[in-house]
Design a protein that fits this description.
It is elongated, with a radius of gyration of 29 Å. The protein folds into three domains: 169 residues, Roll (Ubiquitin-like (UB roll)), CATH 3.10.20.30; 121 residues, Alpha-Beta Plaits; 261 residues, 3-Layer(aba) Sandwich (Rossmann fold), CATH 3.40.50. It has a seven-stranded mixed β-sheet, with helices on both faces. Helix content is 26%, strand content 18%. The chain is an alpha+beta fold. The longest helix is centred in the first third of the chain and has 29 residues. A hairpin with a 6-residue loop joins strand 12 and strand 13. The N terminus is likely disordered. Bound molecules: iron/sulfur cluster and FE2/S2 (inorganic) cluster (FES). FE2/S2 (inorganic) cluster (FES) binds next to loops. Iron/sulfur cluster (SF4) binds next to helix 6.
Length: 672
Amino acid sequence: MRAFRGATHKDKLPRRSGRNEQSEAGLAFGKRSAPDNQQGRCCRRRRAGKVVRENAADPKCGIGGRQTISGRHRKTLRFAYHRANMPTITINGKKCDFTPGQTILQVANANGVNIPQYCYHDGLSIVASCRICLGEIWSPDAKTGQLAAQMGGKLQPTCQTPATDGAVVYTDSPKSVANQKAVMEYLLINHPLDCPVCDQAGECFLQDYSYEFGRGVSRFEEQKVKQPKKDLGPHVYLYSDRCIMCTRCVRFTREVTGTAELSVQGRGNKEEIDLFPGIALENELASNVIDLCPVGALLDKDFLFAQRVWFLKNTPSIDGITASGDNINIEHNEGKIYRIKPRDNMAINKWWITDEVRYGWKFVHSEKRLRTPLRRQFDTLVESDYTRAYDVAINGIKKAMDGSKRLALLVSPMLSCEDAYLLARLARLIDPKAILGVGPVPRKGEDKVYPLGAKAGDKNAFVISAEKAPNARGVRRVLGAMSAGVLEFGDFLKALGQGSGRSDVGAVIVTGNYPSDWITPEFESSLSGKFTVLIDTLLTSLVNSCDVLIPGATWAEKAGTFENWQNVLQAFEQAIPVIELAKNEGQIALDLEAEFNRVPLEVRDLETVIVNTTVGQVAAGVTIAPPRARAFNAADTRSEMVKRYPALAVFGDVRSPVPSTATRTDMQIVEL
Ligand code: SF4
Ligand code: FES
């Protein structure tokens, strides 16, 4: 089965993804261990809150005699001292440091030791029910110091057994391997062999473990128990006969959402997952059970039979429709998004995302997307090429300002910080006194906290922000650094005169990029009589009344930075090519700036742009490149922001998200 697996297969699975972060930490430990250990040994005493180093002979110290150390060096030493005193455990021959309280399986996961596991998940309680992680555990006898088999040599669940200093664990011993084969055979007794039509194929733990730990043949000759398919709610199907009863889904609805819609019904081979009578699985986090299910029992209705997972490419991104800043992976193929999955971030969204974020990307491929520039000619909007559209836009703005009027720029909270910066820079170039405003920030009800009854500050709380724009804070931060008086939308409308005609604004650049129609009659009437350049993604009533329209790009089609409701700045990458002739807003700002400065746009031949190709996967979609000025680059823009505005120095710390590591198949690929 592994031969069919996509290159990023394992990285799509939420259960192990926590392991990546931990194993990175583990690697860091490994790299520093030798010198740090030696430094640690020389640091013996603490005095008045300061570390005093007394071993002048130690060349690793680099400090002669007895000296007082503070700051960064002191931190390193504390780490080194701590590191030197960490307990260790040996798992399958690999010596691993651990923090007291960690279970053996957690230590193994953090150190890249492969132990099979179904029911364990970092974000759920430990039930140790699947029994595939069992291992032989030997620990030092308190009196003799000799290793002795725990529990008389019985296998124990590594997911539930705490790691102890000096213990030695084997999950690759003959006894453990025999157990793994027995568990696999047991689980496959009633599991249908429908991998070719199962959506989970290619990212199924039963497939993987069958290959890695199974016995290869089945001795079962009786009839398999047949169980029904169930419609659990708006997004989830349950194929009961594929379920291995790990109870992850049940624990999720009890521990993470507190809604408890799911439970285990029946006993023995008639056991099945079912809904509490009369209640559907429709809480706002419900679809996380799809990611949690290690086999193909819980399936996403939206993704059902849509694409084989090994064709999907994976781009790390940030939620682009709410203020939550949830870390996500956009999974796409040939320029089309197929699904969005959570990306672990313990400080933001932990392992989960809301259904709103998971399914909120549909507008990216909407038929209402604006795909080509338009300009007004004889009071009618006509399609235009970019050169003409930019020319009409800049000349129209200059004429409308006419020496006495001002330019106003409305920056949407759906845009990235980099877009906001370049647009504001353009506005300041055209009119140094330009009015800068933040677009309307949609809200839906109040913030919600899961599990039900929890408070926002609770350790396990998952907060759903009521604010439905990804970057209101980021846009305010950028515009605020560039101008003293940034207007909120209400004040911006007042500056436009609110349709009264009493305003010193002659031209307006409006940006939208909302996932639905956002134009209000009040805003439309405020723009009347002013030269309006609209940069937007979806067809709205304003398209008919603007003077120039330039089609923008959704967040999935560009790179940038968002600041979430907790004021955390997070960068995201471009996942798919921009639709047809649309451009990202940062590029549009650069182009208009070049037009204003009379720098000719670069006219390029048609070219193929391939985005995010990964080894062993199908290349992404192709697109046609329209003429443009200097190419937009999010990282370069952030560097410029840091250099030019001290208030934006914080962008110097923003790092691009690390893409998932590709997993290469360990079976030969046969060229057809
Ligand atoms: S449906 Fe999936 S997650 Fe739920 S118990 Fe069965 S195998 Fe586990
Ligand atoms: S993972 Fe340990 S018993 Fe299931």
